[in-house]
Amino acid sequence: MNSIFSIHTIRFVVLVFVQVLILNHINFSGYINPYIYILFIALFPVKNNRIVLILLSFLLGLTVDMFLDTGGIHAGACVFIAYVRPLILKSSFGMIYEHQSIKFNTVEFGSKLTYFTLLTVIHHFVLFSLEIFSVSRILLILQKTLFSSIFTILLSVIVTIIFSRKTK
Amino acid sequence: MQQIINFIIRNKNFLLFLLLFGISLLFTIQSHSYHKSKFINSANFLTGGVYNSANNISGYFSLKAQNELLTAENKRLRKLLLNVNTNADSTFIDSLTFSEDYRFYSANIIKNSYSLNNNVLTINKGRNDSIKQDFGVISSKGIVGIIDKTSGNYATVISILNGTSSISAQLKKTNHLGSLIWDGKDSKFTQLIDIPKIAKVKAGDTIITSGQSSIFPKGVPVGTIESFKLDQAENYYEINVRLFNDMTSIEHVYIIENANKEEISNLLGN
């Protein structure tokens, strides 16, 4: 329990720092940034309490918001995906999720990719809707969601492959 | 009563989600209105400190370009100083009041931002350096933004690339006034609106600040006119302004304090 707790604390801090110090300065072609701090929410243990996850996601988003001066947009998007995560888990992993025995290191690649994609696209859509905050500019929202999502998914998959521990 | 408690327990996840999402929405809406965001800003001790130490390292990468910029500015100022010197003495008899209308402080940008809809910068000067809200911020090339929140050693700047900012600006040639806003599309351009139709507008003309807002002195360069068209009512011009500043790479900035600001705002009765 203690080691899990410390792993997630470290992951929280490292992801926030990587996000605000490096990834937010990429600005590829003007506005495309990856937001891989949501890996924290994606890789949070399934068995744990949902309330804990929702609260932690709020804290995570608020920390990022504080660094980026963006009001509450990251907090809102994070809370949203934390709340809908069980639905996404069910639709991307199917039966394994029902048995409550997912280990993110061992699931097959295809369903992991689906999972990341769904989570990322939902997160980015909520994020950019809140940032731009106007229905009349829905095209800009969708455009930003699409491009940033591709970037985020690519990076998250690479990061999880690099940092996955080879436990059977 | 029992049923209410049961309901709350059954839906605790959803209620918590609603509560937290509501709070984030509140913060978001606050951040969309000018000068309203309360405490989620990067001028506090933690975020300011982190950005400052990161900037200590990343500052080395652009050292050469920034040095060249500063040298060029020094050269320009020195030329100005040598040429104006003789005139200044004869005009200002009381040397105590000479050029005390505006005070300048220098600062470094420790967090730049230009890809969002509402961009906010962070600088490494704060209340301890007597920086207050609504001071103007410029760089050697032109206008940058207005101070928003301050903490002990840091302050946030509402960039001109921010949907909520609106700065009084004018045509250099003819003194017609307008407001400088940003449509959120391109970090190289801002928009100048409310220029009356009667003004003679030409592509390539220079836009400067007007000095009407008591934040910026008159004549701070903003940019040149790229293109222009009449608005829907066909009474005013909407002008696309190409900024002198490259907002994606600014490091050294100057903060302007208007010493007569209080007097002016008292006179205007607000």
UniProtKB/TrEMBL annotation, chain A:
User: Membrane-spanning residues where?
Assistant: 6-23, 35-60, 72-93, 113-133, 145-163
Membrane topology per record: Multi-pass membrane protein
Q: Which UniProt keywords apply?
A: Cell membrane, Cell shape, Membrane, Transmembrane, Transmembrane helix
Subcellular localization(s) per the UniProt record: Cell membrane
Domain of life, per the record? Bacteria
Q: Which GO terms describe its cellular component?
A: plasma membrane
**What's any GO biological process attached to this entry?**
regulation of cell shape
Q: Which NCBIfam families match?
A: shape_MreD
Q: Which family does it belong to?
A: Belongs to the MreD family.
Protein name stated in the entry: Rod shape-determining protein MreD
TrEMBL record, chain B:
GO cellular component terms, alphabetically, are: plasma membrane
Q: Name one GO biological process term.
A: regulation of cell shape
Q: Is Nucleus a UniProt keyword of this protein? A: no
Note whether Protein biosynthesis occurs among the keywords.
no
Sorted keywords for this record are: Cell shape
Looking up InterPro entries in the UniProt record yields: Cell/Rod_1, Cell/Rod_MreC_2, MreC, MreC_beta-barrel_core
Residues of the Rod shape-determining protein MreC beta-barrel core domain: 109-257
What family name appears in the similarity comment?
Belongs to the MreC family.
* Protein name (database record): Cell shape-determining protein MreC
Q: Which organism is it from?
A: Algibacter pectinivorans
